[in-house]
Amino acid sequence: MSKCFDQQRVSAARIMVVGCGALGNEVLKNLVLLGVEHIVAVDFDIVEAGNLSRSVLFSKSDSAQHRLKVEVVAERLRAMNPVLEITTVCGDIAYDVGLGLLRHQDVVIGCVDSRWARYCINRLCMRAGIPWVDGGIGELEGTSRVFVPGKNCYACNLGPKGLEELAKRMPCAGVIRRHEEAGEMPTTSIVASIIGAVQVQEALKLIHGDMLAQGELTSLCGKMFYYDGQHLSTKVVDFQAYDDECAVHEQWLPIRPSAITPNLTVSEALVAIEKELNVRDVHLCLENDCFVDYVVDRTTDHRTFVMSPGHAVERCLEEKSPLAGIPLGNFYQHEYREIDISFPYQDCTLSQLGIPAWDVLHVVADGNEYYLEMREQ
Length: 377
Prior knowledge:
alpha/beta, 5-stranded mixed β-sheet, globular
């Protein structure tokens, strides 16, 4: 270990890696080789053939068996270091990662492929007061940036046009197929290794905050590292924006531990919250998504019950054969963004509402706001 970093501090560090593709593979491999022993890996995808030429932790058999990326990386990383404590989340950073899990990390490393995913990482990190390191790769180019609450914000850096394009999303597999159809290589293992190395280096700097404060280390916070492999050049440019009026900066404090779990029904959860906080008139705010009980066909006024979080409505409709293939825009959805005693589905569990394990509940009761960290189960 370099004299710049303290091995005990590195071993004890808790780091979440979001995205386990080419970039995530490099980041995870580097973290384990450097001695990090507490990792959370997040990804919702399976290993595909297109991943194999640029992902050091995946094999041909993983692709043939359609194994989950998080399952494979956990297995390979434990083989590298048997004492590694790795938690896996097979899900989407936007909806499936509880703030209670993220807030116990020292730093988050983003290895994602869309503005929306980066926005979601940034939103969670701002709420939890946790710094994060972004990385992006494409063909022979790559970038890395650092965002620290109070100093630099991804959302503030997007600008109006960027915010408008947040909904546009193409997973890595889609990008790979698009480039392969055009006879192009979407990215290379070389670029992934370079940017992944920079990200891990910046993450280790962040867990040595005292050395950063003393000037012994320099962070990329407020700057962007750019690598151009085609012309073999690098540069570091200013990349800092922090608007005090940005709604994404809201930090959820104080967060209280609670005995509430995702398998409680709405009725049980509301009663438990009343008892824990000694309050009445509890309102549970669904901050990351809505709950949709039914959709209405705009042309026929026919009502179809879906009983799902908003992001899963389209999938629910696809599973109902008469509705498969009908554009989502043809439907009006009836949704809830706040849950209280008047909610008609009191037997629904918090999990069915779309609230993930380890999440932090935003509660409004008796005119006050509270933040309650759930237990896993």
